[in-house]
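Private note to self, pasted from the team thread so I don't lose it. C-alpha cells:
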C-alpha cells in the first residue's frame, strides 16, 4: 500500500471518529460509559424498586400495633380497645359444641338381611354337596357292579365317595362363605349333608343373628351405656335403643350358638353334634355396624345451627394491663382487635413503608452526592449499595422466623438473638469497596431498616449504629485480613458495652439473660468479620470492584502483566516503578489512597507493551521509528496505548478503579509536537484538526488519577535534565504542574492548590533522591570530555542524528517537549 493510500484511509478514519465523538459528546458520560439520560432513568427505577422490595421484605403481612402475646406471657404495655366490637367466648362456645356432640346419639346400621343371606348360602352349599354325594354314590355302585375282578372291593364305598366329595370342598367353602376344617367336612359327609342338619344349623344361627351381633363391645365404647340410633336395613326404619349392651359381640354370639347347639342336638351322635356346632359358629358374623359417616353428618348439621357465644367490648375498655399474665381470654380479645382492622390494612401499611423508605433513601442520596467526596455516582455502585441494604432487610424476617422457633425451646435465647444480627456487615463492605464516608451513611440507614420491625427500635437502633460505626473505623487502614478480624473484635467489644447498658435498663437484671446477651453480642462481632472476609472476594467478582486486598495482590511485581512489561518494555517498567513511588509519597501527603495510587501507577502504561519500540524509554539509543511515520500516524500510536492499556487491564482483571486511572492518566492533553510537525508538512495547515492530536480523556476524576497524571509527566520530563540539581528539579516540577493546571487537566478532580503544593514537595524530594550527586572516584569519566566521545554518555540523553545540527539549547528544548509527551 502506498503512502498516499495510507494517508487517505487515515484521514477518512479520523473524520468518522471526529463525527462520532461530536455526536456523543453531549449525551455520553466518559466516566461511567453509560448514556447520562439512561443512567438517570435507571437510577430512578432502582430507587423505586428498592423501596418496594425492601417494604415487601420488611412487612410481608400487616404490621401489628401491639405484640402478639402467647399464653403465659407477661404484657409489656397497657392495651385498650380502639372501638366497640364483639368477641367470641371460645371457651363457652367450645363447651357448647362438646355438649351437642355428646348429646347426638351415634347411628348403627342393623342389617336384617344377614340371617337370610346365611340361610341361602348354606342351602346352596348343602344342596350342592348332596347332589355330589348322590353322583359319587351312583358312580361307586356302577363301578362295583360292572367290575368282574372287584379290584377296589378292599376300599370301603364311603371312603371312595368322600374322596370325590373332598375334591368339591373348595366350591362348598366358597358357597358357604366360611372355610371348614377337614374333620368337620368329613362328619357332615357322613351325615350326607342331610336337610335335617341344615335346618337345625339354620335355626340356631338365625336366632343369634336376629338379636344383633356387633364385632366387639369396644366399638360401642362409651356409648355402651348410652342411647344409640339403630337403623334397620333394608327398611331404613330407625329406633332409639337406650340399652345398647343387649346386643351381642361376636365372641358372645359364638358361645351362645354353641350353647343352643348342645341343647337342640342332644339326641344326635357326639360327632355330628360337634360338627354342627363348629359349622354354626363359623357362620355367625356381625350385622350391627357403626355408620361413622352418617353419625358425623348429623353431628355437623347440628353444630352448623349452633351460634357462637359473644360478649361485647366497649371502646376504651382495658384489654390487657401492663404486667398482667396473658390468659386465653386475653389472646381472644387481642386477636379480635386485630381482625377489626380494614381488610386492605396490609396494603396501606406496605405502601406507607415503601414511601418512608423511598423518602429516606432519596433525600440521603441527593445530600450525599453534594457533600460526600467518594459517594457512588455510577449505576453499578448504586446497585451494590441497594443489594447490601436488601440483604440486611432479608435478615429481619429470617430473624423473626428463627426467634419464633427458638421461643418454644428457650425464651432467653429467642429474646437475645437480635444481638447476633450482622447489620454492621453493610457499612463495612461499603467502606471496603466504596469509601468510608459512604459507609457512615449506610451505618445509619441499615439499622433504621432493621428497627422498623423491632419492638424497641430506638435502643436496638443505637446498638447497631454503634457497631456499624466502629466497624467502619476499624477498616480505615485495611491492608490485610487481620484488619477485618480486628474490626470484628472491636465491634464485639462495643456490642458488649451496648448490651450491658440495655440490660441495665431492663430492671431487674437476671444473670442468665445477661450472660446470653453478652455471648450473642460478642459473637455478632466475630460473625461479621467472618462474613466480610468470605463475601469480599465474591463481591469483587460480581461487581468488578477492587478492594485494598486486591490492590495488594496487584501491586506484587510478579503479576504476569508486570513481568511482561518488564521484558517487553523495560524502560516503561522502570518509569512505572518510579511513578509509583512518587504518587505513593504524594498520596500520603494529601490524604489520598496511597495503595490505589501506587498500584495504578504500576499499570498506567501497560498499553505500551503492544508497541514498545515507539516509545523512547524503550529504544535504548536505537533508531527513532517516528522519523519514518507521518505525524498523524505517530499521534494515533500514542493515543492507542491508552486504549490498549484499558483492554489489557480488563483482560487481567485489575479492577474498574485502575482501569479508570489508565483511561484518565493523560486526560485530554495536547500532543503539540506532532501537531506542529503535521502543520509544517501539510500543504494547507488550516486543514489539520487539533482534536486528532489530543487524548480522548476523560480528565482525571479522582485525586489518585490526578496524581498519576502529574507524576507521569514530571518523571518523563525529569529525564531531559542534563544537570539535575535540586534547583533545576524544583523548577521543572513547578513548571510541569503549572502547565497541567493551566491546561485545565485537573478541573474535574478534587486536587486543591494546597494539595498541588504538597504534591510538588513530594515529587521534588523523590526526584532529588533519584538524581543525587555521586562522588567522583579516581579514573572516573570526565564530564566534559573524553569518555563521552567513546559512547559512554547516557543513551536517553543523546540527540537523534537528524537534530545534530541544532544548537544545544534547541536540542534540550525539543527533547523536553518530547519527554513531556511520553514519546522520548
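Design output:
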Amino acid at each position: 500500500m502506498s503512502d498516499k493510500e495510507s494517508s487517505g484511509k487515515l484521514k477518512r478514519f479520523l473524520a468518522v471518529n471526529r463525527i462520532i465523538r461530536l455526536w456523543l459528546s453531549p449525551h455520553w458520560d466518559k466516566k461511567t460509559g453509560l448514556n447520562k439520560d439512561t443512567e438517570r432513568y435507571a437510577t430512578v427505577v432502582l430507587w423505586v424498586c428498592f423501596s418496594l422490595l425492601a417494604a415487601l421484605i420488611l412487612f410481608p403481612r400487616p404490621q401489628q400495633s401491639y405484640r402478639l402475646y402467647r399464653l403465659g406471657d407477661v404484657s409489656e404495655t397497657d392495651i385498650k380497645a380502639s372501638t366497640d366490637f364483639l368477641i367470641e367466648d371460645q371457651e363457652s362456645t367450645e363447651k357448647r359444641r362438646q355438649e351437642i356432640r355428646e348429646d347426638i346419639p351415634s347411628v348403627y346400621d342393623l342389617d336384617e338381611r344377614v340371617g337370610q343371606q346365611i340361610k341361602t348360602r348354606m342351602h346352596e352349599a348343602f344342596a350342592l354337596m348332596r347332589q355330589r354325594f348322590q353322583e359319587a354314590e351312583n358312580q361307586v355302585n356302577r363301578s362295583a357292579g360292572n367290575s368282574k375282578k372287584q379290584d377296589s372291593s378292599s376300599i370301603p364305598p364311603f371312603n371312595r365317595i368322600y374322596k370325590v366329595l373332598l375334591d368339591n370342598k373348595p366350591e362348598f367353602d366358597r358357597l358357604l362363605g366360611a372355610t371348614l376344617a377337614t374333620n368337620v367336612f368329613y362328619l357332615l359327609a357322613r351325615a350326607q349333608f342331610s336337610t335335617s342338619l341344615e335346618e337345625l344349623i339354620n335355626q340356631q344361627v338365625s336366632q343369634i343373628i336376629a338379636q344383633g351381633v356387633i364385632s366387639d363391645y369396644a366399638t360401642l365404647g362409651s356409648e355402651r351405656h348410652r342411647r344409640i340410633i339403630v337403623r334397620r336395613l333394608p327398611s331404613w326404619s330407625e329406633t332409639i335403643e337406650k340399652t345398647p349392651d343387649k346386643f351381642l359381640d361376636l365372641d358372645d354370639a359364638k358361645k351362645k350358638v354353641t350353647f343352643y347347639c348342645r341343647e337342640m342336638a342332644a339326641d344326635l351322635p357326639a360327632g355330628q353334634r360337634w360338627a354342627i356346632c363348629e359349622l354354626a359358629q363359623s357362620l355367625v358374623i356381625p350385622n350391627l355396624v357403626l355408620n361413622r359417616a352418617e353419625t358425623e353428618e348429623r353431628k355437623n348439621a347440628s353444630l352448623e345451627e349452633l351460634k357462637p357465644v359473644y360478649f361485647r367490648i366497649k371502646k376504651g375498655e382495658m384489654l390487657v394491663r401492663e404486667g398482667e399474665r396473658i390468659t386465653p381470654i386475653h389472646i381472644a380479645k387481642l386477636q379480635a382487635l386485630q381482625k377489626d382492622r380494614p381488610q386492605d390494612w396490609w396494603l396501606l401499611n406496605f405502601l406507607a413503608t415503601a414511601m418512608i423508605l423511598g423518602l429516606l433513601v432519596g433525600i440521603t442520596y441527593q445530600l450525599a452526592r453534594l457533600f460526600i467526596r467518594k459517594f457512588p455516582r455510577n449505576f453499578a455502585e448504586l446497585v451494590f449499595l441497594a443489594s447490601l441494604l436488601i440483604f440486611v432487610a432479608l435478615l429481619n424476617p429470617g430473624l423473626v422466623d428463627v426467634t419464633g422457633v427458638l421461643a418454644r425451646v428457650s425464651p432467653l435465647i429467642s429474646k437475645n438473638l437480635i444481638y447476633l444480627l450482622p447489620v454492621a456487615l453493610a457499612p463495612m463492605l461499603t467502606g471496603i469497596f466504596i469509601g468510608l464516608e459512604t459507609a457512615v451513611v449506610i451505618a445509619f440507614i441499615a439499622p433504621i431498616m432493621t428497627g422498623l420491625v423491632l419492638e424497641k427500635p430506638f435502643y436496638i437502633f443505637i446498638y447497631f449504629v454503634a457497631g456499624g460505626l466502629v466497624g467502619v473505623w476499624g477498616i480505615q487502614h485495611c491492608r490485610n485480613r487481620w484488619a477485618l478480624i480486628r474490626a470484628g473484635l472491636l465491634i464485639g467489644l462495643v456490642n458488649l458495652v451496648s448490651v450491658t447498658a440495655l440490660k441495665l435498663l431492663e430492671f431487674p437484671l437476671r444473670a442468665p439473660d445477661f450472660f446470653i446477651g453478652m455471648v450473642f453480642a460478642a459473637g455478632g462481632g466475630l460473625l461479621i468479620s467472618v462474613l466480610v472476609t468470605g463475601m469480599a472476594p465474591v463481591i469483587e467478582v460480581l461487581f468488578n470492584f477492587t478492594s485494598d486486598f486486591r490492590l495488594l495482590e496487584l501491586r506484587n511485581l510478579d503479576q504476569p502483566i508486570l513481568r511482561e512489561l518488564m521484558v517487553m518494555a523495560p524502560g516503561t517498567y522502570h518509569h512505572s516503578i518510579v511513578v509509583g513511588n512518587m504518587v505513593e509519597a504524594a498520596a500520603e501527603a494529601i490524604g489520598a489512597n496511597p495503595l490505589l495510587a501506587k498500584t495504578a501507577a504500576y499499570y498506567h502504561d501497560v498499553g505500551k507493551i503492544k508497541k514498545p519500540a515507539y516509545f523512547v524509554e524503550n529504544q535504548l539509543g536505537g533508531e527513532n521509528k517516528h522519523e519514518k511515520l507521518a505525524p498523524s500516524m505517530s499521534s494515533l500510536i500514542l493515543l492507542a496505548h491508552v486504549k490498549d492499556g484499558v483492554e489489557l487491564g480488563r483482560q487481567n482483571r485489575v479492577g474498574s478503579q485502575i482501569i479508570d486511572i489508565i483511561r484518565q492518566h493523560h486526560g485530554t492533553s495536547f500532543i503539540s509536537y506532532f501537531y506542529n510537525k503535521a502543520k509544517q508538512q501539510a500543504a494547507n495547515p488550516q486543514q489539520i484538526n487539533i482534536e486528532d492530536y489530543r487524548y480522548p480523556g476523560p480528565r482525571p476524576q479522582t485525586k489518585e488519577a490526578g496524581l498519576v497524571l502529574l507524576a507521569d509527566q514530571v518523571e518523563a520530563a525529569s529525564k531531559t535534565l542534563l544537570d539535575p540539581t535540586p534547583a533545576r528539579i524544583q523548577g521543572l516540577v513547578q513548571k510541569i504542574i503549572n502547565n497541567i493546571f493551566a491546561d485545565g487537566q485537573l478541573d474535574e478532580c478534587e486536587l486543591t492548590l494546597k494539595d498541588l503544593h504538597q504534591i510538588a514537595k513530594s515529587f521534588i524530594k523523590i526526584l532529588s533522591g533519584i538524581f543525587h550527586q555521586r562522588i567522583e572516584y579516581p579514573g572516573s569519566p570526565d564530564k566534559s570530555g573524553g569518555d563521552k566521545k567513546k559512547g559512554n554518555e547516557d543513551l536517553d540523553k543523546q540527540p537523534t542524528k537528524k537534530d545534530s545540527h541544532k544548537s544545544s539549547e534547541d536540542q534540550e528544548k525539543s527533547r523536553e517537549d518530547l519527554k513531556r509527551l511520553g514519546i522520548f
